[in-house]
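Two quick folds needed for the group meeting slides. Do the first one here.
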Amino acid sequence: MTTTINTDDSVLSELATRWASVYGLRHVPADNRYRGIIDGVCVEVAVVDQTLQALFFSPTGSLISQIASDFAGFTNLARSGVALTSLTGLISRRPDDLGSCVLTLSIPQLLAVGPDKFDEIPALVVKDFHQFGTAANAMICKLCQAPSPTQLVQYDEQYHVICDNCFQTFQQRAMENPTAAAKPTVNWKKALPTMLITMVIGGVVWGVLQHQAFRLPFYFLVALPGIGVMAHARFAARAAHGMNRQLLVAIVATSVIAIVIGNVIGFAFALAALKVRATWWEILRTYFEHYLPANWQEEALYFVGGLIGIYFAWAAHKPKTQGEIVQRL
């Protein structure tokens, strides 16, 4: 069966739907995109900026060499008439990332390929993946370790492959209580070191910015702790692959320590400007015993800025309800 490709922008959505129908991709209503697994290759299709885009990756085969060679080995796709320059390689810093690629096709490119070859494009990309180590049946379910998972889902800003049983179980629980908050599993082994590192770095940066040489206005100094706390929470949530109330408490505690570290460093700069020489122990004792009690209103404003940052960080990363997650899986 052939279809006529026209230049109406709405046809891109129809073509995305056609690929979904041919390859059994699942529609994700919240993002209006399609996800699935084709012979061991994970695929996500969407219409982005008036182009048809398809993300391809596999947990079982490395694409890094092909990304480095501008996909010179993707001979199956090249023979279809699709220019290899339509492929963009993606590599993150995660140690388990084997590379991925995004195929971007505009309407003129689709016209050049023609309707007869359009349906074959995802299958040809999958064949090229198989040339470089991707196995058709080597994946296992992320949740129960069952072989040959069939569902590609996105959770905590990461993609996972799961089996039909686990997917249906999650859907059923969400239907029974869609407003119940999901309980993300926080990776404390990654979250704690990340929080400690960003706490120290953030505290030192905050203290240095209080140096008289910068001459920052006071209102900007009040806003800076909030910005720093939001960044601190962002790093922690990404490292933990989620957010829960226990992690929020840890973020609040480390944020307070970071602000105190910065305030003490800023106080040390103020003493140095007055030609006062003191050890760090003397600076700490003077700050807490004399300076803080006399200037607590000013110091409190910095913590207010931090609290505002915590509020926005929690709003951005708070656990979603089960119903919301299902809509975006």
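Then this one, please, same format:
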Amino acid sequence: MPVIEQKIVIQKPLFDVFRVATDFKTVSSWQPRTTAINITSGDPIRPGTMLSIRRGGVFINADIIEYDRNKKVLMQGIWGRFRFSRTIEFHSGGRETTINDKLNIHTGWLYFWYAPILSATLRSELSAEWAQLKKQLETT
């Protein structure tokens, strides 16, 4: 089961970072592989909201399990063909915000050989996306 963890510090207040990072309607501005997002139910975002996301050729169906404004987003669902859970936590440090992103992909024993490839690919993609968000927020 691959676990991908990312940590990034953005030189902006927590309110600004959380607002942009959790606005699923405009997330493609800093996640270039995200080509479509549909909020199936629960707009505005809250626990119980269902998302359908297309990232390149991969479809992701996710349920928002926990949504603590300016603190944490927990989602679970299916990433391609694998179950996943993802926790994104936001911590304020005055005029900077630290984001901790933890993605667990449950590949199962049948796909053990695929786990290292999937981990490396997702780690690279997520790192680039968070760097793009940082660049976008710190230049405005």
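Slide caption for protein two: Strands lie at 3-10, 34-41, 50-55, 58-68, 72-79, 82-92, 97-106.
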